[in-house]
Write a structure and sequence with these properties.
The protein is mainly alpha-helical and 180 residues long. The protein has one domain. The protein has seven helices and five strands; from the N terminus they run αββαββαβαααα. α2 runs antiparallel to α3 and α3 crosses α6. The protein is flat. The termini are far apart.
Length: 180
């Protein structure tokens, strides 16, 4: 083994030991390791949220159909879609950015969620861990810490959301107009 290979291996081992020792205690008392989350993953999950089509009305003065982006229901639906994008980003960060140090407890937290109407497949270990992290382990302060670890800022998320909306609008405007 060459000296450079040995140096790389020793550096990797030292980094792994640091990562293994980088245990944090969340505000809820749960011990975790925080991992950066890929921006492409966050972009992927937020892009899956569908925005409503812009409503169209017939303008009799102009004798044609026109979009009405100021329609109150449309604006409310866009707000709901932005909220869904934010939740999707938070879910991706919780699922991929938090590694539990200890096993998911069996202390009744899942029955309490069921009582609140939050159902999931209790036999699926991935779903069980995700719902535990999302609804029990993380506090709002912990989410802010996870955003910092991932390098995600509110401004960056807002920019990404605007770019997705722009791309979808461009795609709508680039379609052939409907026959009148």
């Amino acid at each position: 083994m060459s000296n450079s290979d040995q140096a790389v291996i020793e550096t990797a081992k030292a980094h792994q030991e640091c990562v293994e020792d980088d245990i944090r205690v969340l505000g809820t008392g749960v011990r975790v390791r925080l991992r950066p989350v890929s921006p492409s993953l966050i972009a992927e999950v937020t892009a899956r949220v569908e925005f409503p089509p812009v409503p169209v009305f017939h303008n009799p003065d102009k004798g044609r159909d026109e979009e009405n982006p100021n329609d109150p229901r449309y604006l409310a639906d866009c707000d709901a879609a932005r909220n869904a994008q934010g939740m999707a980003a938070m879910d991706a960060m919780a699922m991929f950015g938090i590694e539990l140090v200890d096993p998911v407890p069996d202390d009744g937290w899942d029955r309490k969620l069921a009582f609140l109407g939050i159902e999931f497949d209790h036999d699926d270990p991935v779903a069980r861990e995700f719902y535990y992290i999302k609804h029990v382990a993380m506090s709002m302060e912990d989410f802010a810490l996870l955003q910092d670890v991932s390098g995600v800022t509110e401004d960056g998320v807002a920019r990404a959301q605007r770019s997705f909306r722009r791309d979808k609008r461009r795609a709508r405007h680039n379609r052939a107009p409907a026959e009148a």
